Structures are given as structure tokens and as C-alpha cells.
Amino acid sequence: MTGLLSRVLTRRPVDTTKSRTPKSPRERTWKYLSPLLRLLILTQLAFNIGFYAVLPFLAEHLGTAIGMAGWLVGFVLGLRTFSQQGLFVVGGWLADRYGVRPVVLAGCALRIAGFAWLGYAEQTWAVIGAVLAIGFAAALFSLAVESEVARQAVVWEQEGHGARTRVLALFSAAGQAGAFVGPLLGGLLLAVDFRTACLAGAAVFVLVLAGHAWLLPQHIPGRIRTRQRGGVRGLLRNRRCLALCCAYGSYLLAYNQLYLILPDEVQRAAGSQAPLPWLFALSSLLVVFAQLPVTRWAGDRLDLRRSMATGLLLVAAGSAVVAAARPADWTGITGLLPAAGYVVLLTLGQMLVVPAARAWVPDLADDGRIGLYTGALSSVSGLIVLIGSSAIGSLLDLGLPAAVPWLVLAAVPALTVALLPHRPERAERAEEADPA
């Protein structure tokens, strides 16, 4: 990996200012990115390869190999998300205070330890400890990377290279490319056992750690380390940002069901979980090939609020499709069609929601606090996922009609559209430019 990164970055010092302006808005964004942005986007690719080699198969491992009840599996998966998303605010604060490099390297080291631990964990307490380590590791390195990408995307936009959502869309596409490769790798490794998949995931992060120890600069030009207190207090008073966080959390709750309720639906329809990696691959390929066109389309027609609202409604529609089809109790290929429709609609919603939310945060954040506010976006979402996933797991154990959990998942994102701040980001900028 270090050889690949060095060739991409041509071993030059990472300079955040050198990039050329595209001749056309439709020209490929990658060609004009700074070396730092290229490094961070490749980081997202590598992170997700290691992560998704393990996570899609965790619920089945916990339920079958370890024998956990459905509510406990849901709680553990929610705890993993909460320890990652919920503690992003801590990672953001650390990145603002100490810089990107030390936080990224510490997160890589912790992720290596967490995956190795999970591979050998057989008791519930050990699984929970490993899951917490894995989640907090991502709260460190992923938040540091995401907040810096968001900051660099604003710089990109201010320099006239195009809308910041194009950079963030490319970042999302790279992550989904990793999410495509990861489950395929994990599926192959599961032919040996779950422990082998975990150790392979740890090995990926060993390579990531080595690459970043060599290539990531000690100090990134333009990034100010904020040491003053009071950031959390200002965040808690920022109702617009908190509303955005809650709306984003409803999307993340639905997305988290790819690992909780979708495997059960696939098992019911197909008699095994063999089609599950292909559904993950479908989601990832959609993002890899369609994210940038969708972002360009949305950027030409929708402000950030409308983009998020449309995305949330698509997410809700995906769950509604399964809820509508579930009473028919179809099996085989026909039975998998609603699940595929859920994945497609969820992914289309994701392609609108994620870049818009990340692009909106810098406009709502206080000066020098972009890491903290980016972390809050994920922390509030993580709390929603922790509570929501436990609730969904309980619904599965109660023997209710099979459509009920899916109806709940459809209602939540649809209702949270009303929480989105009502004034679009473009209006905020216009007011800042002309206070009169």
C-alpha cells in the first residue's frame, strides 16, 4: 500500500494549495485534487476494505457461533455504531486540538488491536470490549480524516474549482469502493473462519498505519489547532446544527439495518445468507458509479436542504417497499427483489444525504471547530442508532407481524424531514455576503 500511495502522491510534500481549475464542471474531479486530498480519499478506500471484510458477517457470528439473543445482537451492533459515531465528537475535539496526524495514527493502532481481539472473543464481555475498541478507533481516525476533507472541500470551492459537494461525493465513492471489495474479501475468508476475516482486517490496518506514518504531514497548512474552551457549549446552543444531526441520524439508523434486519430478510427469502455479499456489492457499485453524477445533478437543481429531504424520503421508501411485500412471504429470487429494492433506494438516498450533510456542517460550525461539529453530526446519529437498533431488535423478538419493523424504519426518516433547518445554505451565504 505504501508503494501505491507514494506513486499517487509522487513523494512530494503534501501541499493543499496546488491544483488546477477544471476546464469544465464535468471534468473528472480527481485530476485536480491536491496531494493531501488524494491521500485522504485513498485512506477512506483502505479503511473500508478492512472494515467491511468483517462487519457484514458480525451479526450472524454473534447469533450463531456465540448464541446471543436478537435484542443483544442488536444492542452490540448499536453499541459498535455508538462507540464510533457517538464518540466522533471526542475524535473531532482531539483533531481540532492536536492535529490530524497523531489522531489518525492512534486510531489505526487501536483498530488493529480491536480486530485481533474480536477474532478471539468468545464471551459476551470480550465481544463488547472488542466492539468498543473497533468503534472508538474509527471515532479517532475517521473523524480526523472526514473533518479535514470537509475543510479542504471548502478551500476547493473558495478557489473556484467547483462545488464542495463534488469532493465530498468522491470521498463517499471511495468509501463505497472499499465497502464493495471488503465484503467480497470477507466472504472468501469466511470459508476458513470468522477469526481469519478479523485478522485479515487487522492486517489491512497495519498497512494503513505504515503508509500514514510515512506520508501524512506533521502540520497541514491552514489548519488551526484550537485550544480554547467553550466549543461544546456553543454546539449545544446551535439548534440548527443539532436539527441537522437528528435528521442525519434517522438516515444512519436505516443504513445500520443492512447489518441487523436485512440479513434476517435475506435468510428468510433465500434460505441462507449467500446473497448478502451481493446486495452489499450492489449498494457499493451504485455509489462508485453513480455518486458523482447524482451529486452533479443535485448541485444543479437542489440546495442542501432539498437534497437531504429528497434523500431521506428515498430511504423511507426503501423500507416501505419491504414492508409492503412482506405479508406475501415470497421466497427465492422473487423474495429477494424487495430486499434489492430496499438496498437500491437506501443507496440513492445515501448519495443525496451524506454529501449534503457533510457540506452543510462547515457553514454551521464556529471558527476552528469543524472537527467538533463534524463529530457531533456522527455522535448524535450514533446515539439514535444505539437506541433505535435495540428497539428494532426487540421488535424482531416480540413476534409481531413481519412488516412492523420495516414500517417503523420507513416512518422515522420520513418524519425527520421536518427537522431540517428551513433556510438553505445558499441563503445563509447570501446573508453573510450582504448583511444589510
Helical content band: over 70%
Average pLDDT reading: 79
- In the residues, how many domains can be counted? 1
The N- and C-terminal alpha carbons lie at a distance of 53 Å
Q: CATH H level: which superfamily?
A: MFS general substrate transporter like domains
Write down how many β-strands occur, each being a DSSP E stretch of 2 or more residues: 0
Biggest pleated-sheet summary: none
Low-confidence stretches: 1-27, 424-436
CATH architectural arrangement: Up-down Bundle
Strand proportion, as a percent range, falls in under 5%
* C-alpha geometry: globular
Query: What is the third-level CATH name, the topology?
Result: Growth Hormone, Chain: A
Which oligomeric form is depicted? single chain
Radius of gyration: 21 Å
Q: What structural category arises from helix and sheet content?
A: mainly alpha
- Assigned CATH class: Mainly Alpha
Order of helices and strands: HHHHHHHHHHHHHHHHHH
| DSSP summary: helix tally | 18
Task: Give the topology.
Elements: H1 2-9, H2 35-52, H3 58-65, H4 70-86, H5 88-98, H6 100-120, H7 124-158, H8 164-189, H9 194-215, H10 231-237, H11 239-256, H12 261-270, H13 276-301, H14 304-325, H15 332-364, H16 370-397, H17 403-416, H18 425-433
Helix pairs in contact: 1-9, 2-7, 2-8, 2-9, 3-4, 4-7, 4-16, 5-6, 5-7, 5-16, 6-7, 6-9, 7-8, 7-15, 7-16, 8-9, 8-13, 8-15, 11-14, 11-15, 11-16, 11-17, 12-15, 13-15, 14-15, 14-17, 15-16
